Amino acid sequence: MTAQLNPRGDVAVLVPAAGAGVRLGPGRPKALRLLAGEPLLVHAVRRLAAAASVHTIVVAAPIAEVAAVRDLLAPIAPVTVVPGGAERQESVAAALAAVPVGPDIVLVHDAARALTPPALVESVAAAVRSGHDAVIPVLPVVDTIKEVDADELVLGTVDRRALRAVQTPQGFRRSVLAAAHAAAGDALTDDAGLVEKQGVPVFCVPGSDHALKITRPFDLALAEHLLATDLRTRTLDS
Ligand code: C5P
To answer: Which of 11, 62, 220, 222 has the fewest CB atoms within 10 Å around its CB?
Structure first.
């Protein structure tokens, strides 16, 4: 059954899903790799569509897969699918251009964070709604972090108390994200980086362990385990 998005919602979610995912090993584009029998993108979109504030979802798919991704997502939720670009930033820009008039909050969410709970989508959106122009979900860094040189010699130890690991969805006032993309130069790995360059303060909210980025084969195995456990607890869908 297709999940209906909320026509009165104020949130558009952009899902860059056009990457190759070489770190997962050879195979299909990463967003289409299977997790518990379904593509990562299906898991991600299902949870986005379950967040009550979401009005629109725009997916940037690999150019060769646009039609296949439309067919794949049609039973899950009403989603707009556009061709992605060579860089993540281009894929986000293509998705942003397809957002209809209406939603004032735009979230950018990696398809690779397939188990992100709807509650995290809502908490990022709520922080933007409350007045923060840019919001990122973060986790504390648990490992000791060293800075090294090109020969793997340690240059120093970074104070981890001041560090945060950044997840998605990242949330923005729509006009702020549009201005940052219009002014964008070098490709960055996240959208908050673009608005930081514009001098916009970026606010952190608590992230979720379940929003892990599925990048390497180990992450896929962990995500399979989390899903199997969740059959009992159902925490991933709320
Ligand atoms: O490569 P990385 O894991 O950083 O990609 C993060 C997200 O950006 C993934 O969901 C990937 O599909 C997406 N991406 C994209 N277009 C690209 C490269 C990456 O949509 N050209």
So the answer is: 222
Residue 21 lies in a domain: yes
Taking the CA of residue 31 as reference, the ligand 1 atom at the shortest distance is 12
Helix (H, G, I), strand (E, B) or coil at 191: helix
The CATH number linked to 67 is 3.90.550.10
Residue listed under structure tokens 């569509």: 49
Per-residue pLDDT tens for 124-146?
999 999 999 999 999 999 999 99
Q: Whose CA is nearest to atom 7 of ligand 1?
A: 110
Would you state the structure tokens that stand for residue 1, as one six-digit string? 């059954």
Binning the chain into helix, strand and coil, the percentages to the nearest 5 are 40, 20, 40
Q: Is residue 18 in contact with ligand 1, taking CB distance under 6 Å?
A: yes
CA dist., res. 111 & res. 115, Å (int):
9
| Bridge partners of residue 158, in order along the sequence | 145
CB 227 within 8 A of CB 236: yes
Supply the range of the domain harboring residue 47.
11-135+167-237
Contact 32, 65 (CB under 8 A): yes
Reported as a single tens digit per residue, the pLDDT across 61-91 is 999 999 999 999 999 999 999 999 999 999 9
The whole-angstrom separation of Cα 77 and Cα 151 is 49
Other beta carbons less than 10 A from residue 217's beta carbon: 11
**CA 97 – CA 89 distance, rounded (Å):** 12
